[in-house]
Amino acid sequence: MGAQASSPLDRRQREELQGRVSTLLGSFLPGYRAQLAVAVLRQIALELRPQEPSGPQLSRSKKLPRVREHRGPLAQLRGRPPRGQPVFCVLRGDGRLEWFGRQEDFEAGRPPLGAVALTGYALLTSQREYLHLLRGLGPGPEALGPPPPAGSEPLLEAPVRAPLLLQHPFRRHLCFSAPSAEAQHAWSLALQGGIRLRGTVLQRSRDPAARAFLDAVRLYRQQRGHFGEDDAMLGSDAEVLSAVLLRELLPEWTRTEGAAAGRGGAWALTELLDAVYGVVLAAASAGLRAFQPEKDELLAGLELALRPDLEHTLRLRTRAAGRLQAEVQARLEACLQRSVDLQLPQLVRTLLSTVERVLGTVQTLLARGVDRVCSRLRESQLGARLRGAVHSLGELPWDPELMHLCYGEAERGRGRLGQLAASFGFLGTQSLVFGAQDLAQQLMADAVATFLQLADQGLSASLDRDQAAQQLEKVWGRVLKKLSSDSAAARSEFVRGWLLRILLPFVLHCLEPSSQAELPELHGGDLGTGSQALSTAGILEDVVRGVLLQRIDRELQEALGASHTSCGLVGHSQPPCEQGTAVLFLFLVPGPLECQASALTWDQFRSSGRSPGHLSLSLGASGHNLSSCFRSDFPACVRPKTTRCTLPTCL
């Protein structure tokens, strides 16, 4: 069913879709520009942050995330009516699936019959489940009339052996069958890895512009009344915008343009949706490419404009935050007590237990791998095989069969997490599961990289078999300590980050229309260049995020049974600062889900050799409640030298 066909869309329909994309970009890009300004401000502060005394213990893997290339013969349902036809399929390391008429065509370098990026697809290996899904497709009984009679879908007429059924909400379905159950299992693991790799490309990125883009999409949707997160944020920037538009467009489109196609059966409807998606994706890609030169120029200009005014911008942001917090405090507390506090403990514990199982499996798998290497060394000759045996561990993070044990632990928590989070309007459980799986793979890759680095330092040709194995066991002991430390930090960061993604949109929705409040600090001639990086909606998020994090940290500490949360935020759960004279130093650490900050006294800051003019902000005894920093993902630490306090927010 993956063969390319002539487009079912006429010229009028294509032009209408292109116009809708242009309208979306016209509404989206102003918010994107504003979030880029926030990202630049965050980056400037990051540059002036002193080195953290305790950071990650494991060495960062230099290997890019990928999937192991997988090849083999399959049968594909294509044609009219669909019939199983032999193809040779290749899953590339970047998560693209290609299929050829014969293996010889692939080996000769001929172009494939078809190719698709696996972004947004879901894999089904049950024909019954897939047929149930097909029956649920369509614009609805009112638009389609009576459903087609049983047997009218060709797929119903013949059982499919070992099916591999790739379903997408907006694209043509891809239906394959494997020659055996073993081949089906291997392909299933490979395809699931490709789907995840393509889906989390923005979430994994450390580029500040990627986070700016995701924040801009989220705010764009909130402005249109969509506060709960879902899986529309998976994929590249153009794919995310296409999914956002199609979620707005699809109900209207299927009531009108899709009605005739729907009467032709579910497959005909998916072909129409595939054509719609192709037009929308092409237009979104072209629009973002056209914006790229402006984006590059904007980022360079923001750097020059915001750096000199950083101190002034942060001062205004702090005053505005204090004013806004006083305005929303009563309604915020009422919302939290009514809707959040009762469910938060169970949500924390369920999410925590899921990620603990995932990370525990990482440690178990790596220990087994090291044990196998040590046993192999004791049983074989050394020489050239020594380093080869050790470096065989290097492929462990990319082995789908072994890593599936970790990934399965994340999948097992999907149902319960989905039920608990749905009450807050959160429908992004697939993104959450992918996030846990990405975390497992990254920790495994870092641990393996650290093990190989330390092993290379300790092994030599002069060691006999038992000595080499003993040396590796010592290395494993060191790596285990580092892995345990990083796992504890990653566990808390993951839980805190995802709880914010679940709860923050819900609480912001409860506080509407506070994001439209007029704040004098954000208007008038005093603001200067900081106007590009400050907004009422952004400051409100800071305030709410800070209050939420206090509650989350309290529950997390109780769930962990520890005196403090190992999350990289020193003293984050302490009470808000008392009013008084202080000097504010922000040191921001970006990350996909979490961030950190450090506090220095004036003497410590001055001795660090950094220029205080860039980052210091003197605050007199103004009486402001400094309860958040310029974005609440980063905590701000404010206190005279004799005492210490961490503000209850982070960016």
From TrEMBL:
Region annotation (Disordered) ranges: 51-79
Superkingdom of the organism of origin: Eukaryota
Domain Niban 1/2/3 intervals: 335-505
SUPFAM superfamilies in the record: PH domain-like (SSF50729)
Record-linked PANTHER family: NIBAN FAMILY MEMBER (PTHR14392), PROTEIN NIBAN 3 (PTHR14392:SF4)
Family under the similarity heading: Belongs to the Niban family.
Name of the protein this chain belongs to: Niban-like protein 2
Lineage: Eukaryota, Metazoa, Chordata, Craniata, Vertebrata
